[in-house]
Amino acid sequence: MRHAEAVIDLDAVEANTRLLRRAAAGAALMAVVKADGYGHGAAPVARAALAGGADMLGVATLPEAVALRGAGIAAPLAAWLWTPGEDVRAAIAAGVQIGVSSLDHLAAVRLSADVAPANSDSPAGRVPIHLKVDTGLGRNGVMPGDLTRLLDAIASAERVGDVEMRGIMSHLACADIPGDPSIDVQVRAFENAIAAAEAAGLIPRWRHLGNTAVALAVPGARFNLVRCGIGLYGLSPFADRAGLRPAMTLHASVALVKRVPAGQGVGYGFTYRTSRESTLALVPLGYGDGIPRSAGNVGQVWLGGKRRTIAGRVAMDQVVVDCGDDDIRVGEDVVIFGSGDQGEPTADDWAGYCDTINYEIVTRIAPRVRRRYVGGSWGEVGDIAVGATDSGAGGSAQ
Ligand SMILES: Cc1ncc(COP(=O)(O)O)c(C=O)c1O
């Protein structure tokens, strides 16, 4: 009997990748598998996305990138969020393409250029970098006023063979609001940055500004590569599902059923009381598993063929559902969220219950919840722990 598990449909990830690649209409696709593949498991998702036609992989942090290499994934892979002084050497030695946002980042990369392996575009000892430009988001990336100095430094590092400017990248603030005037402003700023790079003698192969929303709905911001995260997992940045298939279904089994009298308080603070004699079902998932505490008395689950609202507060390990006079059995399946096809709540519904976004609902599912993988066109994957190191598909395009 399972306690709780997140079932990840790798066929859905593969199909979503194909859909996004078609939607991006000619742009290449980077599959974004940061934050352990938005909670789905970075390595299995990376393999499914590569099988679905992803050209490369992207993560935020250097350890995330090194872990993917440790899992046997050899595909082109970029990491863009790191602090100078961190162990960039390990990532460079693993053939990771490194995001550079400042002179300090560039200096740190150059110090470890000697360990860069050869790849199809450059000899050993030359680090492929992606210059990250702040076109208006106000987060990571070099500001336009500091761009020329950084470009000059990259150009001289290229001349001596320490780096190769593989890409130039930025990120949009309002990609999920097509038509928002900030998109045009950021696109123009990005075009200016590309022109400045070219003026400095740098011709980056990859020019990437957009995410899933851009792949689906903002043709003017695709350049020649889109970085897709949420869409891989079958969730849409828009109200419309856009033909995507949710990949994660979160299940638990009813751990205990009991009959209680009218007026029974349920959970910490007694924020719920039964209105009459009733059957309570104990569901062994709580905020320690990533269920938002704000779902108390509002979040719904699918149990016994209907949606039922959580009774009382979400505790660390469990929630309770008031099932009235329905016949509920120990071990019965509870779906917290899934595709919605049977009527169960979706990650979008949960985002609504908890005043957040679907991204957060899936990404926050904790390591304590076992992942079970189904599908996968490269062969049987079966049950593997999150971050497990089985070998699998890897691409070769750089
Ligand atoms: C820099 C960057 N690029 C791409 C993505 C992927 O965005 P999305 O999940 O909306 O496709 C993210 C996600 O937050 C990001 O931070």
Which key features would you list for this structure?
19 strands, alpha/beta, Lyase, Ornithine Decarboxylase, Chain A, domain 1, nine-stranded mixed beta sheet, TIM Barrel, 398 residues, 2 domains, 11 helices, eight-stranded parallel beta barrel
Structure description:
The protein is α/β, with parallel strands linked by helices and about 400 residues long. It has two domains: about 10-235, Alpha-Beta Barrel (TIM Barrel), CATH 3.20.20; about 250-375, Lyase, Ornithine Decarboxylase, Chain A, domain 1. The chain is about 25% helix and about 20% strand. The protein has eleven helices and 19 strands. The strands form three sheets. The protein has a nine-stranded mixed β-sheet with strand order 11-14-17-16-15-18-10-1-19. An eight-stranded parallel β-barrel has the order 2-3-4-5-6-7-8-9, surrounded by six helices. A two-stranded antiparallel ribbon has the order 12-13. Helix 4 (about 60-70) links the parallel strand 3 (about 55-60) and strand 4. Helix 1 (about 10-25) crosses helix 3. The model is unreliable at about 380-398 (pLDDT under 50). The structure holds pyridoxal-5'-phosphate (PLP). The site of pyridoxal-5'-phosphate has 10 residues, from strand 9.
